[in-house]
Specification:
Rossmann fold; about 35% strand; about 25% helix; alpha+beta; globular; 2 domains; five-stranded mixed barrel; OB fold (Dihydrolipoamide Acetyltransferase, E2P)
Amino acid sequence: MSYVEFSAISKHFGASVAVADLDLQIEQGEFFSLLGPSGCGKSTTLRMLAGFVKPTTGHIHVNGRDVTPLPPEARDIGIVFQNYAIFPHMTVFDNIAFGLVERKFSRANIKQKVDAALAEVGMTGFESRYERELSGGQKQRVALARVLVIEPEILLLDEPLSALDKKMREEMKFWIKNIQKSVGITTIYVTHDQSEALTMSDRIAVMDQGRILQIGTPVEIYERPASRFIAEFIGESNLLNCTVLSVDGPVCSIAIGSKRVTGRLTQNNSVLPDQAIALLVRPEMIRLYALEPGEQPKLRGTVREIIYQGSVVRYRIKVEDQELSVEVANRPDLPRLNLDDEVNVFWNADNGVVMP
């Protein structure tokens, strides 16, 4: 049995189905993310595990124990919300100590544990400050320390970075992951931000309309999405309209207009010859070379737009009456292309993913 198990979990709010027949297993010590658009059921799933929302059907087990009927305080689960919920009338020390005081720890034990938690989150020296004296990132650290200090079995994080600016979010992503690895706590993270999920997670469950569409590592989710929805939701995508010519196991020969390319099927997908499909190719997987006079390219393209973005240059390329977005590293050894240049367009066969 896995450390956390959702078995046939559903949640209905009247006629609305927030979560439908969810089965999910999460291992001990794993950093697991629930990723999806707003309203897909990810926060409801998290709150059912925390005990704040009662499932309509199904059971939730933690470390072999059925916690479904238990109140939140009996589950040994810590949660950090979007707004941090720091008490403005308390100092940082008292905020972090709050759960220990409620559990009637001794004063000496409280000080020892709070001091250790402050050191863990890099907030030593901030004990006497109040919420109004803290930055967004510091509030995030206090909220996390307040949960970690009670040493819960599981840590839940519900969109914890949404209130921070972009620069702070980038910093906090790595900080939270490093803290989680250091402590070794099983962590379930809810986000709509695919960059956060890809950066931080051991595994990801992509959700939509109350259902899990795919579970996998960040590499599997990004490079082998199970559906067009996932391909478009995770990162930037090129989806080319194509026709299947032939199928040999997972390898497909595909026609893009008058040209032939190769693509690969993802797990559990199948196609037939003459079937219309989409071919997913990520912008950074495509390579471009200016055509030499008289050269016959495998796939001919024309530069229609150039967008300079500092570290990368983005090109919009017309190929067989379709358009590709291409991302090229801005390096001195790579020649710059110009508008209306004719280019040779290609990618490795493994980087073209067939979407039925």
